[in-house]
């Protein structure tokens, strides 16, 4: 790799400000992808070190040790094991937190022993005076045999010095001190290990023996060392002890932390936010405010997007001649794109608020606070983040489980996350609640419709916890688990970091959901506008039928559209499944909505627009009026009565109706077994619950 295109890897413990430094170095020159053969996201960006040289910065997932305990952490070893790999670094920057330097340095000494030039960047240096910390940088550099740079990603200090060090990385000598540690552990053992491959460093051979994800030596050559697992674990433990002895010696001489001089209020805030009573009250109060904000802030931009795409369809119809292409664009593609983009405001707001909480350091307190409760249900405190993220979209929520170290806890979290009410359910909930729940006030100021919506959220979350408890008791999955959480300092959120997070996660949602919703919309349009021979005779038959009536042209056109829908391929499919859904209070039209929404829940509202002869219109008020006017021919009463509406709400609260989520679950679990368990398990629960609800309330 040429010097003007330097490969740099950022490595560090979680919450050391590594991502903030990455954002500061790269700005918006970033891209997100996957590591080859790994599902974990990879963030890369370009940093201009000077007018002549630039660096390709790779932000590796946060890890407490080079010995991985989760999928995210294993990426560090995966990248460092292959010197010929695309992302193999010329220089590594280990990012540490000035207040937690002792723990951070364990990872630094491990990374340094790999034999790659390594720089120690001590972040949050602007907080040193406030925390009563002083560092003898030259002395620490000598003790650690590396270049130490004090930086503040938030205040933008030390960044230029770090760039200069990276630009001149070739003057840094690769350092490895593992041989000294090996002699203290067991000389004969490590002498024998070195003979396996004299060309490899002793630390590489040690990692090959102890870490399956770092096996760059034939397993057969290591067979003599792999037999005694207990000895390897014992030696790993000794290695950690000896590393900390060296770290303690260096910090004792060159790092001073005097709490008496500290001026921060972190301890006082922690007593409040992690209090066994007030902590929970504050957390649930914040959640309440988040959901209120989502609904109130998102309504205007969502209406604007809805109107924009409705107007766009009308404009395209005006300028294009009638035909299949025009119908495909105006009734299939444009509504399909609108069906994706209409949810951007809600999802962006939710990601914005969660990113702000994470940036302030509060979310780590939530994880710590909830861990004891979650343990009772077979989960981890870290499961809280995916469950909260699931209220926006289950896709990034399932991906967020990668931070959970125990496989059983991670698997249970993946399986239960779709129970939490995602934003795709909101249009369905909103229209059904508006039809069956009156706009009454409870206690004078609580809206009954709003309380119903809140009850559905609580139902989803409660079901998720109950399902977790059952899975914890029944799943026979071997897994080791321990809980480690970093308590970062409270800080004012970086708007730049929040902005980048919102853009990246929202973009991910649009791409992942769009892959499903747009094709489904086009297929739906085709199935609703084509049919067997009887479909093509509908217009002639209807005109004969109404020839003696006084219907207007608009009424005749709607009658033709309704009859065509019934005779179309999708109408035939709806009639076919009607006997199955009739016990739930549904007819063939609702059945069509259920079929389409198994691809993506949010398609349901668009399907209703087509079903009730309002092609190309997605205005919820108009659809609501048509649904309210729909009559059940068997009873002569309204189709969407209280019993049917509640049955639908319960069905959508429990059903697994998102093929994109199933695909993500398959990718994360590397098996079709678990997504199929979700699909059929949640489907059966939804059907039985909806059946009981309708039969009781009818």
Task: Please sum up the structure shown.
This protein is an alpha/beta fold.
Write the layout of secondary structure elements.
Elements (H helix, E strand, L loop, with lengths): L4 E8 L5 H9 L3 E5 L6 E8 L5 E6 L11 H10 L10 E7 L3 H12 L5 E6 L4 H4 L1 E3 L1 H8 L2 E4 L8 H9 L10 H18 L6 H9 L12 H4 L2 H26 E3 L8 H8 L4 H42 L4 H18 L2 H17 L1 H14 L8 H6 L4 H6 L7 H10 L9 H11 L4 E2 L3 E2 H27 L20 H35 L3 H4 L1 H8 L7 H15 L1 H13 L6 H10 L5 H9 L8 H10 L12 H13 L4 H11 L3 H25 L1
Parallel strand pairs: 1-4, 1-5, 5-6, 6-8
Antiparallel strand pairs: 2-3, 3-4, 7-9, 10-11
What is the percentage of strand-forming residues? 5-15%
Sheet with the most strands: spatial strand order? 2-3-4-1-5-6-8
Strand element count: 11
Total domain count: 4
For the residues shown, what is the average pLDDT?
80
Give the helix proportion (percent range): 55-70%
Could you name the ranges where pLDDT drops below 50 across 5 or more consecutive residues? Answer: 34-39, 613-621
How far apart the termini lie comes to 73 Å
Structural class estimated from helices and strands? alpha/beta
Report on this model:
This protein has 698 residues and is α/β, with parallel strands linked by helices. The protein folds into four domains: 5-171, Rossmann fold (3-Layer(aba) Sandwich); 178-255; 278-474, no CATH class; 517-697, no CATH class. 60% of the residues lie in helices and 8% in strands. It has 31 helices and eleven strands. The strands form three sheets. The chain has a seven-stranded mixed β-sheet with strand order 2-3-4-1-5-6-8, sandwiched between helices. Helix 3 (101-112) links the parallel strand 5 and strand 6 (118-123). Helix 12 (278-319) packs antiparallel against helix 13 (324-341). The protein starts with a strand and ends with a helix. 42% of the residues are buried.
